[in-house]
Design goal:
It is a single chain. The chain contains 11 helices and 8 strands. Strands 2-1-3-4-7-8 form a 6-stranded parallel sheet, with helices on both faces. It has a two-stranded antiparallel ribbon with strand order 5-6. The longest helix has 21 residues. By secondary structure, the protein is α/β, with parallel strands linked by helices. Helix 4 links the parallel strand 3 and strand 4.
């Protein structure tokens, strides 16, 4: 009888241990939501996501309406607000919490808008060689005459809904094999994502810690003014530099992930 009781207690202990493991506190490792920039799509993170997942993180890569894998959705109705609302819905519908939200290039505007609305879901904001605008500013307004000239050229080419992509070298992608991979995947950029002002109801980041990653070899000239602005602003957790071009997720994915993990 004693023997049977010991067996029963041993079995119970084993069951309890199994139950405890199965019901353990979920991992504290944050989820990553990676938001691409202009002319890109979720595909641009293909060299980054496997490394992050190997490190034990869940990774989500939404494609913005009218771009990349969703290029067929390009229309006159797609603007900056469309993109912000789309990423908000993406995060909320998946009930994501404890999110490291990364915005590359133009995606910096998108993540600024997302943080303004759902800050409690976010752990950190990472601006990857990104544009950083104040509320009420737009890319077009800051570009001045150069924007008007570009928009005129677009209309003359009969592409009134989208801006043609820059060549791969403009994104700091210089290796021929990388250029061959990048170029056919670039799509038109919805015009009104550039001329609609960013509207924020709270200070930039809405209380979420902010990190800036400066890709400076080679630097993308059109981003330099935003980098100088960030360096002069208070409230940033860190300012990092990465010795590669603008599309670091293509040209230096391992080094980029290392910085992501350091600040996650």
């Amino acid at each position: 009888m004693v023997c049977n009781r010991r067996v029963a207690l041993t079995a119970a202990a084993a069951w309890a241990a199994t139950w405890t493991v199965g019901c353990a506190t979920p991992s504290t490792k944050p989820d990553f939501v990676l938001v691409h920039g202009a002319w890109h799509g979720a595909w641009c993170w293909d060299r980054v996501t496997p490394i992050l997942r190997q490190a034990g993180h869940r990774v989500f890569t939404p494609t913005l309406p009218g771009q990349g894998e969703r290029a067929a959705e390009l229309s006159a109705d797609v603007n900056l607000e469309t993109h912000i609302a789309d990423v908000v819905q993406y995060i909320e519908s998946r009930r994501l919490q404890n999110v490291v939200l990364v915005g590359h290039s133009y995606g910096g505007l998108v993540v600024s808008g997302v943080a303004d609305r759902i800050a409690p879901r976010l752990r950190k904001l990472i601006y990857l060689d990104a544009l950083v605008l104040d509320s009420g500013q737009s890319i077009a307004a800051l570009s001045g005459a150069s924007w008007e000239n570009r928009l005129k050229a677009v209309r003359e080419q009969g592409r009134g809904l989208g801006l043609p992509a820059l060549p791969p070298e403009a994104f700091g992608v210089l290796e021929p094999q990388d250029q061959a991979w990048l170029a056919p995947r670039l799509t038109l950029q919805p015009v009104h994502t550039f001329d609609q002002p960013l509207v924020l109801r709270n200070p930039l980041g809405n209380g979420v810690p902010k990190v800036y990653i400066d890709c400076n070899q080679p630097a993308m000239g059109s981003v330099n003014a935003f980098k100088a602005k960030v360096k002069q602003q208070a409230g940033w957790t860190a300012y990092e530099t990465l010795p590669t071009g603008h599309d670091a997720m293509v040209t230096l994915p391992e080094g980029l992930v290392q910085l992501f993990l350091e600040h996650a």
